[in-house]
Amino acid sequence: IFKPTLNESQKGPPTIVTVARLSEEKNHRAIIQALLIIKKSIPDIHLKIVGTGPLESELRESCDRLGLHDNVSFLGHVRNQNLLSSIVADSDAFVLPSREEGLSSAVLEGFLVAKGTVFAVMDADGQHDMGLLPKLYNAAEGEGGIAIGSRYIEGGSVGEWDEQRYLMSRIATGLAKRLCKVKANDPMSGFFALKREVFEEVLPRLNPKGFKILLDLLVHVPSSTTVKEFPFKFGVRSFGESKLSRRVQIEFLEYLYDVTLGKIIPLVFVKYCIVGTFGIVVHVTAFKLLSIIFADGAELTFKGFSLSVIGAIETAIIFNFLLNNTWTFSHTKLKGISALIGFIKFNAACMLGALANYAVSAFLFSLGVAELLAVVVGAFTGVFWNYTINRLITWKN
Prior knowledge:
The protein starts with 14 loop residues before the first strand and ends with a helix. Helix 10 (about 265-295) runs antiparallel to helix 11, helix 11 (about 305-330) packs across helix 12 and helix 12 (about 335-365) runs antiparallel to helix 13. It contains 13 helices and ten strands. It has a four-stranded parallel β-sheet, with no helix packed on it. The chain is an alpha/beta fold.
């Protein structure tokens, strides 16, 4: 995020600042490699790294090895917010090298620390025409809305895309346009600018999933928002790799659900139920296999419960926990000791859910409700209990 150029009298060595935990997902290695390239043109360039973390020693050693010792300062964790604000304000560029959290969340982080009146987003791999930035800036500043670099208006082009990617893009664009509050021919563009006031007004409603932040903005802005599009030709990538992975495609479909049916039935709950359905299959399969294994010891029980039943229940619980942790609650995925503690909590919640299931079924049956209906209502009670409790104590947002 570049800031206005300082007057010559105010200038010292050009300074880049990054503020983030020094961990894998923040991808500081990319900044250091970029600094090595920048130094060839700007020998006195200086990078200030604010933050601590498990990669600090490795990053320090990397800077020494690459001859960047005099170009990089590690400032550690800056607790004083005024001091941190001053460090950022005095820099020429602020960089967020986020990698795994997704482009949308990284862009939001950037917007939240930016000081200007207009925010802009573009790829740094050469695919977006930097020369278009002044037009986007002037349009956003002058009309107080959103200005988009568009591939799908007269004069625009997707460049050298193959037919498969072009077709996928057109289908995704067609779906996206139906959701937007304002008219835009290229709501999936990654090249745009917007007025600060537009962002601040819509921020509480944003759902930054995946890498199409513009779509999220267009879905949530007021219908009176001004949108202006400028044609550009999508260039050839100079470096890096495509973000269009299978995971990103799934995240796009999840986003479409989130802003439509997700308003009624949350996507996380749907995922939880899907996992539970697979868990039933795992439970039955495990029971059959364990029954075969214990065939010669059919009387093997623990406190009256068949070992096959107990083993099948725990197998299903383990399966459900792992899949929920990896997929359903991937945004709050538990790791290390937190995963072990979470697994214990998940077991406890499921046990209580089973008791709630049984209690409701037995109560309804005692009132004369049909057995099948009582069982179904009890099962749903267990599902809602497990989901609610696990959201509250196992995977906290």
